[in-house]
Amino acid sequence: FMVKAEYDNGVMMFTSGGYPNGIRYEGTEGWIWVSRGNYQASSSDPVAKNNNSKALDASDPKILASQISENEIRFTRSDEHHGNWLDAIQGKAELLSPVEIGHRACSVCLISHIAMKMGRKLAWDPVKEEFINDPEANSHLSRPQRRPWGTDYVNA
Fold first, then answer.
1. What 3-state DSSP class applies to 3?
2. Which of these, 113, 114, 111, 93, lies nearest to 103 by C-alpha position?
């Protein structure tokens, strides 16, 4: 499978079955590959047979040895992002990643999965959070909830 997500700022993200359990970042100076290597969290993880994938690789090894200067963008490092989330709920810490960022990162995965199931190109409205002129695709955005589990029944 191949899914292409195009953002308003020109960034394109490709999701492909050719890259099991990993992500490849491509830039003007080459690419970096990050994955779980041969690790599987469960038997259903999509790891190719005879997978010899490195956990970290690059088009040029010098990229991996390069140092980030003080003026470059740095991301917060977290050894335990689930713990940070629980600490934030309890008021003990600030979230390392704002809720909106997490929501959008998850949304693109779910939208891509729906496009794969539909087997066709879909257009997404990020403001309305629905597919444009596509009731069939929109029907995949939620499913019936069972009592008492589900947000439909809160304060009902």
1. strand
2. 111
Domain positions in the chain: 1-74, 80-156
Q: State which residues of the chain have pLDDT below 50.
A: none
pLDDT tens digits along 42-58: 666 555 555 666 788 99
Give this prediction's pTM.
Answer: 0.67
pLDDT > 90 in the chain, percent: 31
**Helix, strand, coil percentages for the chain (3-state, nearest 5):** 25, 20, 55
Cβ atoms within 10 Å of 97's Cβ, excluding its own:
14
Is residue 24 within 8 A of residue 31, CB to CB? The reply is yes
